[in-house]
Amino acid sequence: MEISFSSVFIALAWLLALAIICEVMNHVVCPKRNVPPGPRPWPIIGNLNLVGSLPHESLHNLSQKYGDLMLLKFGSKPVLIASSPEMAKEILKTHDAIFSSRPALTAGKKNFLRHHLTEFILSIISRMVMSGTYHRDESIENLQDHHKAKGKEDSVPKDMVDVLLQLVDDPNLEVKITTDNLMGLILDLLTGGTDTSATTVEWAFQELVRNPNMIEKANEELDRTIGKGRWVEEEDLSQLPFIEAIIKETFRLHPLTPLIPPHYSIEECNVVGYDIPKGTMVFVNIWSLGRNPNYWDRPEEFIPERFLENDINIKGKNFTMLPFCSGRRRCPGYSFGINLVGTTLANLLHGFNWRLTGDIKPEEISMKEIYGLTTHPEKPISKIMEPRLPLHLY
Ligand code: HEM
Ligand SMILES: *[C@@H]1O[C@H](CO)[C@@H](O)[C@H](O)[C@H]1NC(C)=O
Ligand SMILES: *[C@@H]1O[C@H](CO)[C@@H](O)[C@H](O)[C@H]1NC(C)=O
């Protein structure tokens, strides 16, 4: 069969006419939305070609070009990226109610817990989480009674178990927490908590061994405040401003979740003049916030002293750094996390002299990251530890 030139031409003319009609109808039926700027998406992959192995850094670089509120496509899904303190505040405070949703999780995985593990877990928890007020033989029901009784006195949660027990049977949660899956959840949180804290301490040391004078300064503070006769306790932390400053500076430069876990918009809304459709995935780039040159002097440098001069809130009130995020989805384990990082770091500094092995020079230490569930140093350095305290304490 022969296809003539004119029939191809007519077909093309029809397609063109159709396209114009569609475009016009589109404007009439739904007026054009004002969407945030962003790179042009490819079919199927969207903008995923622009997101490399360090997504927070790629997105940070893209925000320099497209602005601190930009819209990308991950595949066919629209994704909003907030990269400045102002935009973080828009998402996490101004429009908090709309952007606080998360996709439903599978609760099934919480049911892995076998009964004989319970006692073991309770013993760990009672040592680590529950500030010493519970006993090993308490069952979940006892715990709930205990907490209900306590709840009458004051409704401010004191520890993670308080937080969790308040969540049990809370009708507002998307993922219902029941007494059955509570133990599994506590276990998950606990391992999550220790891993997150360990990673932060790892980053702190990665920075500190490059700056031996900071270790000296910390040791001087520890010797003066604690003395060589004992280890550091949680209660001591408020007396150790330089250690506290080291922790804050570590959280600023190396937030555990450089991109917060995604939030979703449950309604269409308008953010600083842009129309954000319902169901848009939102990431706040925490990594970008801590490196914003409008708020941080010499942002790339590790300078704990900046926190001695200026007592900056790291629990979600100051949007220039949000290691625990902010708003209704803020990390519920923040005070546990801060205390765990604090006591671990303080005791590792107090108890040991730290030296680099072999002939690595401090300035050669890499600050490159590996991106994962949490972000770790790409090349952890090996260090030599020597006891600093009387040997009977070890
Ligand atoms: C250094 C320690 C920690 C850091 C930096 C950290 C940071 C974060 C961040 C950034 C989020 C996301 C918040 C959001 O999506 O807006 C989060 C969520 C969460 N964190 Fe942590 N966290 C730490 C330790 C802990 C600990 C110790 C626990 C439990 C004992 C914990 C339990 C949780 C839970 C349950 C969520 C989910 C909250 C929700 O979806 O509403 N975290 N954390
Ligand atoms: C981001 O930009 C900086 C500076 O231009 C560059 O060194 C870095 O490799 C870029 N990172 C990514 C992941 O694109
Ligand atoms: C928030 O942090 C910035 C540093 O990034 C500081 O200059 C500012 O004073 C802080 N704001 C408040 C209210 O503490």
From TrEMBL:
Cofactor(s) required for function per UniProt: heme
Statement: the UniProt record of this protein carries the keyword Transmembrane helix: no
Bilayer-crossing regions: none
Keyword list, A-Z: Heme, Iron, Metal-binding, Monooxygenase, Oxidoreductase, Signal
Keyword Metal-binding (UniProt): yes
Record's signal peptide: 1-26
CDD domains: CYP71_clan
Family: Belongs to the cytochrome P450 family.
Protein known as: Cytochrome P450
Organism: Solanum tuberosum
Source lineage: Eukaryota, Viridiplantae, Streptophyta, Embryophyta, Tracheophyta
